[in-house]
Amino acid sequence: SSLAIGTTTGYRLFSLSSVEQLDQVHESNEIPDVYIVERLFSSSLVVVVSHAKPQQMNVYHFKKGTEICNYSYSSNILSIRLNRQRLIVCLEESIYIHNIKDMKLLKTILDTPPNTTGLCALSINHANSYLAYPGSATSGEIVLYDGNTLKTACTIPAHDGPLAALTFNSTGSKLASASEKGTVIRVFSIPGGQKLYEFRRGMKRYVNISSLVFSMDSQFLCASSNTETVHIFKLEHLTDSRPEEPPTWSGYMGKMFQAATNYLPAQVSGMMNQDRAFATVRLNISGQRNICALSTIQKLPRLLVTTSDGHLYIYNLDPQDGGECVLIKKHSLLGSGKTEENKENDLQPPLPQSYAATVARQSTVPSTSTMPGYSEDGGALRGEVIPEHEFATGPVCLDDENEFPPVSI
């Protein structure tokens, strides 16, 4: 529900509470050529890195218009991740872990394998604050690091080739990964590292997966790449979701086949359990970097795709039947462009009476229901405003009671 973009002139923050309306929360033109902008959920804490000073991290309280602090590092900052407990700064061959409450440096992980893209993931659940990063530049080994205890939890031999994408689910109990080949996506349990799911994106061509993201309820996993197709996988075991088979010959044979997979070698059994995409999206563009999110807007599941040319696309996702997702809105993130945008948004001819058609006609009034937030026990259980005492009285004191409205999903 919150979108941050870096531009040649600065950065912009948006709030998305309805399909029809994209609200600009803040715009800053103080620092040009921003290539990293990370906002702490819906708070006013924003971390910015500019091409003008690529080794410097600037932390702002954007509502007050003040800089909280800045830190400089030995080489260019490649990525930044943050939750309510930790702030992670990833360089090519080292990772810095800060305590977000007072910005103190807690740990430096030196001599990590060359990580030219700054690939790393941090659990947004601050109760565990797991960090994942590549353990090798030549194979797909993942290092799982506990950001709270500051100790390595385990290493996961996830893929044969080098890693290209990593992401945690909202509670930090699952980790998804893809290699540079981009043909297979795997999901592991955290912190044990056991393989739970294996999805095949396709075998015809290797792709560069640039965005990998779970839905907030962990039922779906979305993968986008440098191709025009976005894949959405459903995390379910067929044995759990399939209704009881009728007592027929085919039903009996199906059960026999399912039981037989338990006795096959793991490699063969794993191949048989691979699933194809549950839902797909055909983008109008190809070869352009994009970032995806699975969100619930106005009580309905949506796929959001933001492209590097400055557009946000919103699609309906049918959670029962999947299939091809329907484009329902296109927003411009650069400039107002409202006249052009309104013309462009007359996208849909009359649709058949399908799920997509039904949800497309839903009211555009933003939902007033409270969405789940994060509680101290780590679950996405209830709407939560972070109490003031959780933040130190030091430089990062966020003193507005509304700094942390319930985290929308």
Automatic annotation (TrEMBL):
<keyword id="KW-0853">WD repeat</keyword>
<dbReference type="InterPro" id="IPR048720">
    <property type="entry name" value="PROPPIN"/>
</dbReference>
<dbReference type="InterPro" id="IPR015943">
    <property type="entry name" value="WD40/YVTN_repeat-like_dom_sf"/>
</dbReference>
<keyword id="KW-0446">Lipid-binding</keyword>
<dbReference type="GO" id="GO:0034045">
    <property type="term" value="C:phagophore assembly site membrane"/>
</dbReference>
<keyword id="KW-0677">Repeat</keyword>
<feature type="compositionally biased region" description="Polar residues">
    <location>
        <begin position="361"/>
        <end position="372"/>
    </location>
</feature>
<dbReference type="InterPro" id="IPR036322">
    <property type="entry name" value="WD40_repeat_dom_sf"/>
</dbReference>
<dbReference type="InterPro" id="IPR001680">
    <property type="entry name" value="WD40_rpt"/>
</dbReference>
<keyword id="KW-0072">Autophagy</keyword>
<dbReference type="GO" id="GO:0006950">
    <property type="term" value="P:response to stress"/>
</dbReference>
<feature type="region of interest" description="Disordered">
    <location>
        <begin position="361"/>
        <end position="383"/>
    </location>
</feature>
<protein>
    <submittedName>
        <fullName>WIPI1 protein</fullName>
    </submittedName>
</protein>
<comment type="similarity">
    <text>Belongs to the WD repeat PROPPIN family.</text>
</comment>
<dbReference type="Pfam" id="PF21032">
    <property type="entry name" value="PROPPIN"/>
</dbReference>
<keyword id="KW-0472">Membrane</keyword>
<dbReference type="GO" id="GO:0034497">
    <property type="term" value="P:protein localization to phagophore assembly site"/>
</dbReference>
<dbReference type="GO" id="GO:0032266">
    <property type="term" value="F:phosphatidylinositol-3-phosphate binding"/>
</dbReference>
